[in-house]
Amino acid sequence: METLVDRAMALAPTLILTGFPFDDSKTTPYLDTNWYYLRSDAKRYTQTLKDICEARSLSVLDYFELWESRILDELLAPDGLHCNPKGHQLLFEQLRDFLEMAYKGT
């Protein structure tokens, strides 16, 4: 993760977006595979990413935190892992609001 963040920073001003929580009752296993997506793993990865960004003074839009208390069935597709249209709309609105606050007056 550090290498990816550093490479992004070398290319352009960088804003990091985290993933969002998902319904691991539907992702363990995921569909008809032997792949497992665990919310606890995603939360740990999100925290690691935030720590990396904090050390580099990068802005982070933490969807995981923003969505943790939401009713995910309203935002996720039936697979429990991807956004439905309402979820995509919320991602957009939260990003727009974040950018408006970050760049207000510039």
What are the main properties of this structure?
106 residues, mainly alpha, Rossmann fold, two-stranded parallel sheet, 4 helices, globular
Stated plainly, the CATH topology is called Rossmann fold
Order of helices and strands: HEHEHH
- Report the oligomer: single chain
* Number of E strands: 2
The figure for the number of domains is: 1
Structure summary:
With 106 residues, this protein is mainly α.
What does this structure look like?
By secondary structure, the chain is mainly alpha-helical. It is 47% helix and 6% strand. It has one domain (2-102): Rossmann fold. It is built from 4 helices and 2 strands. Strands 1-2 form a two-stranded parallel sheet. Helix 2 links the parallel strand 1 and strand 2 (59-61). The longest helix is centred in the last third of the chain and has 18 residues, at 85-102. The chain starts with a helix and ends with a helix. The model has no long low-confidence stretch (mean pLDDT 94).
